[in-house]
Every structure is written in structure tokens, then in C-alpha cells.
Design a protein that fits this description.
Strand content: 25-35%
Number of helices: 4
Strand order of the largest sheet: 6-5-4-3-2-1-15
Number of strands: 15
Helix content: 25-40%
Largest sheet: 7 strands, antiparallel
Structural class: alpha+beta
Amino acid sequence: MYIHLIRIPIKKLLKILARALLGLGILLLFTYAVLYVLCHEPRPELEASFEADMLANKMLKAVGNEAYKNTRYLEWSFRNGAHQFLWDKTKGVAQVTWGDKKVVLDLNDTAKSMAYQNTGLVRGDRAEKLIKKATALFNNDSFWLVAPFKVFDPGTQRGVVLMEDGSRGLLVTYSSGGDTPGDTYLWKLRQDGFPESYQMWVSIIPIGGVEASWDDWQVVDSGAFLPKSHELGPITLDMGAVKGYN
């Protein structure tokens, strides 16, 4: 029995692959265009006001801001445990672990941070890259844990937005700090001030107004309210075994 192999010239094969990739690119571009038209919402105009600060303070009171300020240690994970964190808020130090890498991140003076891989100390350019990545992971993943407590951070601006249901939403723009200054969030709140969700206008998501839930809360040992998970469309962002203690 003989098996005949069909030999395709390399140039012809490359042309086939190029056409396939071009077709895939056009399909993705079309899909994005449709989603943009259907889902994109323009960012609301922000007008700072005393009412916005009152609404922000109402949210802080609801989630236990005083207890949060007195919480020394926070533990959580992100992306199904791929990123793990232990944050000492008092010292301003966070241990960030992913894979076989660990960075002891000094949040007050990055130059004092230490990087490890396979339990061995890493130095030089490699250490700088790991520290830079750990900083980005911490900034992003900690925001999903403590965003309600950051509405008065330096560089923030707050405004009130009238929502479709007649309630008032809290609009917060981060004009400085973190990795992506300019990001804006519109908090939807219950009557008692508890957050239910926020819409995002952020640099890493090209479609404005994407909504994420903030309604899966727990009270940690220190008495603060912290989220266990978020729903972002079909995606669940699990915060792992969240702990807050002194």
C-alpha cells in the first residue's frame, strides 16, 4: 500500500498562510467594529462637586473604610491563583509571586525591592524587569481588591452622574499614579452606598463603558468589606482566599 504525499511549494504555502492570516485579521477587525458600535459608551463629563465627595464618603463608610485603614495585612490572588499577594500596608511592602518568581516590592522606594527566581536572588537587568512586572501586577490586581478605598487617592477627581434609573453614580478619574493615568470609573451604588458595579473607561480596554460587578462581598477579620470575585461579561475574576487582618 502506498501513501502519496502532496508536496506544496514553500512559496505557495506561504501565500496560503498569508491569505488565511489576512482573512482572520479582517474578521477580527470587523468583529471589533461591530462590538464598538453596539457596546461603546462615551465617557461622561466630569464636573467636580461637593456632592460627589459626599457620595464618595458614603461609599467609604458602607465598605468599612475605618476598618480598612486599620488593616495591616491583605492576602489575595488573581487570575485563578496565577498571581499571589501578601501586602503589609503598614510597612508599605508587598510580596508578589507568580510561577517560580517572587518579588518583595517596596512600595515606598522601588530601588529597595528584591527579586527572586527559583528561590535564588536575582540581580541586574533581570531583577529590574521582574520588579517592573511585579509593580504592574500589584497596581492592577490590588485595584480589583481595594478600588472603593482609593476614591480620594492623590490625583483623583470625582463627579456625580445621573444614571438611567434615576440614581446618582460616582465618577472617579485617576489623573496621576499607577500605570495608566487617565483611567475613569463610574460606580453604581445602592441606596446605602454599597457598590454594585462600575463601568470602565481604561486604556487597556478599547471599548468604553464595559461593566464589572462589585457585589460579591465578604467581611474579613479586620472588619473591612472586600470582594471575593467580579463578573466581567462572561469572565469571572476570582480574588482567591481573600484575607485582611492585623
